[in-house]
Amino acid sequence: MSALMAVYAPAAWPALGALAIAALPARWSRLLARAVAAGLGVLAVWCGALALGGRAPWDALSLWLLLPGLGLGALGLWASDALLAREAGHADVSPERRLVLERRYLALYSAFAATIALVASADGILLMWVAVEGTTLASVLLVAHPRLPTSVEAAWKYLVATSVGGLLALLGTVFIASACHVSLGAPPGVLPAPLAAPAVPAALVGFAFAAVGFGTKVGLAPMHGWLPDAHSEAPAPVSALLSGIELATVLYALTRLERIVAIATGSAWPGRWLVIFGLLSLALAALFIGVQRDLKRAYAYSSVEHMGLVALGAGVGGMAVVGALLHVWTHAFTKSGLFLAAGNVRHRFGAAKLPEADHLLGAMPRTGWAVALGTWAIAGLPPFGPFFSEWLILRGAVRQGDAAAAAAAAALLAAVAVGLGRQVPRILLGGRRPRQPVAGRGAAWETAGELWPMAALTLFGLAAGVAVPAAFGHVLRHAASLAQGGMGR
Fold first, then answer.
1. Closest Cα partner for 161 from 195, 136, 131?
2. Which domain-ending residue is among 267, 286, 316?
């Protein structure tokens, strides 16, 4: 019993916190949310200590997703506290109604963090799918939190697209379990026996359904239609958690199924599916990112790009898998910091796009520098964290004999960097003088509550390419082995 409690403790704590926030008086909500955030931080440190000591109750691949999920959940709740404080300063509802809305938001955010942790720690294939569905249900209502027509429309689009994706993913999961003679209650890392030739097509068809279904939830092209709207309309801490880690946990679920099918069938097609979706996602981002005038929307297309890159690395195999797993971390922290920075910009100026917001380095210097450094990093330019993980993916693809995929990905990554270079410098440096905040939004300086979660995420994201392998190198190697059907903790 104690072992089971340890396995699910990272998901249980925020889940209990969500129930407490929902059940207790609304005036206690923010205090309870701070307790949940502190607990998630403690759990992240505890899980990290178990990982370094080799005593974690999860395998290395689960642990690799669990650690950033807990860290981002904690920082997202602290950033949400600052967001709600800002909203209270110019709320258009009564204080009683505002407290109810705050309670609903914080309960849903805690539940969102719980479901993300449950995807990573789930000890059964079907439970993993249930947890993925839980992330959707919690985040849909969070996307609609601003109660604007555009945010409600984005939430509906998100719900419809990902609900269809969830049904396809369930169908694919059941097909795979049946064809590969694996129980739905088996651990996601189960190693199946090789199949007889007549059973192979059923398993591959099952994976096709799963790839489209989970790929829709990840936002891989061409199933990405909901993602730019949802990420651009959601509150900044929600966008940070969605883009930073939730998409990666869904992709984790897909790669677990890909390994089961690849081992059972001996076919390379499951991996090729991931490579195809990855390259399509990179191509889509290269086409559209340069014409986005809104920071959050540009970063949403960047998330399509980076999830495509992780899918490419997972599909290629070899060293590319190590790069893909490292990229989960470098992208998670860097992109989360960027979404929080874009949220600060949108709050101060009523928008995060030209011409409403410009000359950020003059008007909001700390946020402006976070945008500048984070965008440089997320574009994959040296010497920042994402550069190292992207380099490992491309180098691994060449080593695996996928030089054509590596060359195509490199060209598309360069095009994305050029696209970001077209718009972001204009927002940072454009205009003749710093703009003033919109009426009722306060002074142009940034508060400590807005700054420190953004700064922590940005700084860690910039150094993650070197710091993470140095601290958790053995976990990374074992996680890569598991992602390719090997053994390890």
1. 136
2. 267
**Which range is least confidently modeled, 25-34, 89-98, 297-306?**
89-98
Cα separation of 311 and 300, whole Å? 17
In angstroms, the first-to-last Cα distance of the chain is 21
Helices within 54-94 (DSSP H only): 60-89
Q: Which of 181, 169, 178 is nearest to 207 (CA)?
A: 169
CB 121 within 8 A of CB 11: yes
Q: Between 200-218 and 269-288, two packed helices, what is the crossing angle to 10 degrees?
A: 20
Give per-residue pLDDT as tens, 168-183: 999 999 999 999 999 9
CA 113 – CA 125 distance, rounded (Å): 20
Q: For residue 88, what pLDDT is reported? A: 65
Please tell me whether the overall predicted TM-score, pTM, comes out greater than 0.85 for this model: yes
Task: State the Cα–Cα distance between residues 89 and 166, nearest whole angstrom.
Answer: 39
The CB density around residue 50, as the number of other CB atoms within 10 Å, is 15
- The band of 487, judged by pLDDT with boundaries at 50, 70 and 90, is very low
* Cα–Cα distance for residue pair 324/308, rounded to 1 Å: 10
CA gap 232, 243 in Å, rounded: 11
* Cβ atoms 210, 176 nearer than 8 A: yes
* Omega cis (within 30) before 355: yes
Q: What are phi and psi of 324, to 5 degrees?
A: -65, -45
Q: Are 268 and 201 in contact (CB under 8 A)?
A: no
Residues in the chain: 489
Q: What is the pLDDT of residues 244-301, one digit of tens each?
A: 999 999 999 999 999 999 999 988 899 999 999 999 999 999 999 988 888 888 999 9
Residue 225: pLDDT over 70: yes
Number of alpha carbons in the 13 Å side-chain half-sphere of residue 362: 14
Nearest to 307 by CA among 270, 262, 254: 254
Q: Are residues 421 and 345 in the same domain?
A: yes
- pLDDT one-digit tens code per residue, 342-374: 888 887 776 655 556 677 888 888 888 999 999
Rounded to an integer, what distance in angstroms lies between the CA atom of residue 114 and that of residue 118? 6
Q: Which of 223, 252, 267 is the last residue of a domain?
A: 267
Do residues 35 and 96 both lie within one domain?
A: yes
Model confidence at 429: pLDDT above 70:
yes
Question: In 10 A of CB 4, how many CB atoms?
Answer: 10
* Shared domain check, 240 and 189: yes
Question: Measured between alpha carbons, how far is 77 from 24 in angstroms, rounded to an integer?
Answer: 18
CA distance 9 to 265: 35
Averaged pLDDT of the chain: 88
The domain containing residue 30 runs over which residues?
1-121
β-bridge partners, 294 = 353
